[in-house]
Design goal:
Length: about 70
């Protein structure tokens, strides 16, 4: 069973196939989740940077209003 092939003694071919399919789906789900977490982090970083830049611009405009 440990070598990736069905063992007549312990499992049928159908059970082996289901186990292999489940393993593949779990791995794909993990990979997709990992990718989404990384994309979410990237988007949050972009948003936070943009907000900081907008705050800086707002402060500059406020400073110009005081001068004018």
């Amino acid at each position: 069973m440990g070598n990736g092939t069905p063992s007549d003694e312990y499992e049928s071919v159908e059970m082996w196939f289901m186990r292999r399919t489940t393993d593949r789906l779990v791995r794909e789900n993990f990979e997709m989740t990992d990718r989404l977490v990384k994309e979410d982090f990237t988007m949050r970083t972009i948003i936070n940077t943009s907000v900081r830049e907008l705050n800086d611009i707002h402060q500059q405009i406020s400073g110009l209003k005081e001068v004018i």
